[in-house]
Amino acid sequence: MATAMSLVRPEGTQSSGLFSTFLVSDLFFCIDVLQVQEVLRYQPMTPVPQAPEAIEGLINLRGQIVTAIEMRRRLGLPPRPEEMAPMNIVVSTTDGAVSLLVDEIGDVMELSASDYEHPPANIDQSAFDVIKGVYKLQDKLLLVLDAERIADLTKWRQSISN
Amino acid sequence: MDNRSSEDQETIREFLIESHENLTRLDQDLVELEKHPQNPDLLRNVFRTFHTIKGACGFLAFTNLEKLTHQAENLLSQLRDGKRELNPDLVSLILETVDATRKVLGAIEANGEEGALAFGELTERLRATAQMGEASVTKPVPVQAAACEPAPAAQTAAIEQKQSEPQPQPQIEVPWKELDPRAAEDRRKGQRRQATNGDNEEIARPSAVDANIRVGVGLLDKLMDLVGELVLTRNQILQFNAEREDAVLNATSQRLNLITSELQEGVMKTRMQPIGVVWQNLPRVVRDVAVSLGKQIEIKMDGADTELDRTIIEAIKDPLIHLVRNSCDHGIELPAVRMAAGKPAQGTMFLRAYHEGGQVNIEVGDDGAGVDLGRVRQKAVEQGIVRPEHAEKLSDREALNLIFLPGFSTVKTVTNISGRGVGMDVVKSHIEKIGGAIDISSRQGEGTTVKIRIPLTLAIIPGLVVTSGGERFVIPQVSLLELIRLETDASGKHIEYVHGSPVYRRRGSLLPIAFLNQILGLRTTIENEALSMVVLQAEDRQFGLVVDGINDTQEIVVKPLGKQLKGLTLYAGATIMGDGHVSLILDVLGIAQRSGVFGELREQIRTAEKAKNQVELEQQRLLLCRAGSFQRLAVPLSLVARLEELPQSSVELAGGGRVVQYRDSILPLVSLCALLEPGVPDTNCSADPMQVVVFNDGDRSVGMVVDEIIDIVEDAVTARQKSARRGLLGSGVIGKRVTDFLDLSEVIGAAKSSWLKSPNRISDSKVILVADSSSFFRNLIRSGLAMEGYSVVEASNLEEALHQVERSSPALVITALDLPPKGASLLASALRSRSEWKSIPILALTDSEVQLTSCDLKAGQFQGCCAKLDMSSVCSAVSALVTSSQSKARELACAGEGAN
């Protein structure tokens, strides 16, 4: 099921490791590749009534039940067009695996530490909590996602209610 | 061995298994010790092993073995304490002891007794060696001591010889083959290997050691997980099979089904442990507590062999100990107190465990003082857990359950045993965490029993699959009581509404109902012709849950939900269905709480028993009557003065109203029928004689004509619902039937209005004009003032108000500040502009948002101001203004918060 990922390597700079990249709306994100358990196509999902809005449902990952988080809602982005089926990135966190529903899976990239910068202060609060930092690529900005925080919805609910 | 009970047998078996294991380790340790004689850890291990065996022997009354191991222990303690040094001779001696011990153990296993295996000589030798060691302490050179002992080289050689060559053991009466093969191992090695016959027999009959192996818990858990997966896969195969007609697949899947079930059962059994494992240290706990408190307590246990899943056993350990300590400390009284109460000085505690309907019940009880409910209530108030007025209203059962609240303790002094107020709430939460329920019952002076109900296992449970809003959900079978199908034509009648809450009459008692769709916020996808309802039990209460459809029952594997969903009390977990889809498992208690079927603590739907305990305040005597289409109308009996039967001939007309002469006064009659259903032909006033309920209103009376007086009931009103209908306060449930409550002020008001219209007005009651655009508020104020004895005229705008003032010359005008068209100020100035109206005081009513500024009052436009909804302030302001206007005093009266 896992989609083939090509490896993109920068030239001659100090590497800060490999990252899986993906698109959510117009935002370009990445997660440390070691945290990514697997990447799946759209999976049938069981909705959880009365659950926090960001939770899209539960998927059966070979007998393991994994909570799927709709990244667009999690980040307060406009909903995905209906004809667009989301992809699952299953990431492992300290509290077990969580599937992130994203628009598109990108390449696995080796990123250079010199391009790294802390997140700017003016980004939206709901996104600020979950973005560790930014890699300045030549043509675009790559946001490093904090999987642990993405999976932690307690804070999210607070920021919504505030 | 016949004289030993089966429990003893079990203990001995465990002793044997453990001892054999220990001895095997001992062999290794001793050999190792010989290489590193100074290693204190090894010495300690060896010592401990002998010590353990000795202790167990003493307990099991194997005296010979006890003596032997005791001597070995003595010797080893000297070594351990550094009083002497280890030498090969000593090691040999100890090894010989090990072998001897094995032999005795073998004999015990074979026929349950030590037999004649005394090993007196060996014991004596050990004793002598130890004594020599003691003596040698005084000597400066320990090596010499070893040389001095009466086990010279010759004897050492003999000992070594014994190891390789069996020394004759005439005292052994047991045939070798019945002994533990390991015990005889070295003997056989030295002897001959050809005894094939005997060897085979030994192998054929497994000993306690061979028949048991110790397996890591982790491995068992892993196995359980795998079996869970297998069960899911089996379910998938079965579903797949059902879809096609393939004989081979069918047969194979049936076989798979059977094997999986058996495997599941088997693996489950490996994790099962008797509850006695947890109980065995309780007698000690009881004894210690009893001694420290000066009490005499006997503990009785029943059902110690009841088996439970390992994880559950672990989980209930601490709660059980806590409950037992609690019973000893709070429950059972001091001997003197018991004697005084006519009970035996020795208190009895009992522990009982038994299986019931897929669950295990555990009871912890005592015959002590019971829970002092008065004290519980008092304490709960003192500790601020409940308000005083609330505490009195609590039923006994509810009061008893207060002890499960955090921080609650009734003990006067904190002891080291209990009374710190941490406990029962923790016990409860522990039990609930593993899906159990706890219940306490107590009779003062007779004792207390705590009953715990817990599931057998947590991993795989039977569940009922239901659908709701197009999704499947699983309800754990343990919570399920019955399934009810509500047919279409009757379903409207089957579900009734009390206070807006749906209920169902099930075998004569009301069952609160919840709709799964509503709870989960799902839309019903299909318009069902018939409703399906599952009757569920959460804690000790029952409710009905209406679902879209009921599928089937299945064995499901409970999988935990992710952390993100832990906060949702609606679900107990999730499972994977036969088709690979994930389904949520409903948490019945959470569902009940979310839907409100159990309500708040004081609003609980009560069972018949609870209703009996209900406090007087909620229980009132009610007069039930019938009028027109209203079959059950209730009036508080306390308001009823008399019930009369009056002949039609006595009715006279007075000013358009019907009156009778009654006890030297004029009693106006109000037809309830006409009041409640204006326009419908009046039935009650045509009957002869008429049924009249007479009410006292101040110094006058009103007669209410009804069709029939049904009954006077004394029953709890379980629920109330407000009614928008004129003349009705609302409805409630009395004696399991929905009953309407009559608004008496309306009845009296109706009598008043006819009174007013009568030309010869004998009343000096004041007329008050209420001007407000909202008929709701007008009604509200009118009913309030009617009870105070005022007559009320109404107006909805300025024009009407002025018209009414002209017609009825009110003593007071009450107006809303926002009176149409342009506010109350216009009315005020209009009144002030005419001299005859100047003196009429005006009371302004405000919403909470619209505040009357003080300058409005100062300007003299209004004489008072009240909040609209504060009826008591309105009434007091009205009476103050009416009185003051009579004395022509222009005093500003302010009442209510609105003016401040």
Q: Describe it for me?
A:
The complex is a heterodimer of chains A (162) and B (900). Chain A is mostly beta strands. Helix content of chain A is 14%, strand content 45%. Chain A has four helices and twelve strands, in the order ββββββαββββαββαα. In chain A, strands 1-9-2-3-12-11-10 form a seven-stranded mixed sheet. In chain A, strands 4-7-8-6-5 form a five-stranded mixed sheet. In chain A, a hairpin with a 2-residue loop joins strand 5 and strand 6. The longest helix of chain A is centred in the C-terminal third of the chain and has 9 residues, at 153-161. By secondary structure, chain B is of the alpha+beta class. In chain B, the strands form seven sheets. Chain B has a six-stranded mixed sheet. In chain B, helix 3 packs antiparallel against helix 4, helix 11 packs antiparallel against helix 12 and helix 26 crosses helix 27. The longest helix of chain B is centred in the first third of the chain and has 30 residues, at 6-35. The relative contact order of chain B is 0.04. Residues 136-205, 413-422, 600-619, 754-763 and 888-900 of chain B have low confidence and may be disordered. The chains are: A mainly beta (162), B alpha+beta (900).
SSE map:
The complex is a heterodimer of chains A (162) and B (900).
Chain A: E1 7-8, E2 15-24, E3 27-32, E4 36-40, E5 55-61, E6 64-70, H1 71-74, E7 87-93, E8 96-102, E9 104-112, E10 116-117, H2 125-128, E11 131-136, E12 141-145, H3 147-151, H4 153-161
Chain B: H1 6-35, H2 40-60, H3 63-80, H4 88-111, H5 120-137, H6 142-148, H7 153-164, H8 185-190, H9 196-204, H10 208-211, H11 217-243, H12 247-270, E1 272-274, H13 276-279, H14 282-293, E2 297-302, E3 307-309, H15 310-331, H16 335-340, E4 347-356, E5 359-366, H17 373-382, H18 388-393, H19 396-401, H20 424-433, E6 437-443, E7 447-455, E8 460-468, E9 471-476, E10 480-486, H21 488-494, E11 495-498, E12 501-506, E13 509-515, H22 516-520, E14 531-538, E15 541-547, E16 549-557, E17 571-576, E18 582-586, H23 588-595, H24 608-613, E19 619-627, E20 630-636, E21 640-646, E22 651-654, E23 657-662, E24 665-671, H25 672-676, E25 690-697, E26 700-706, E27 708-722, E28 728-734, E29 737-742, H26 744-757, E30 767-771, H27 775-788, E31 791-795, H28 798-808, E32 812-816, H29 824-832, E33 842-846, H30 854-858, E34 864-867, H31 871-886
Helix pairs in contact in B: 1-2, 1-4, 2-3, 3-4, 3-5, 4-7, 5-6, 11-12, 14-15, 15-20, 26-27, 27-31
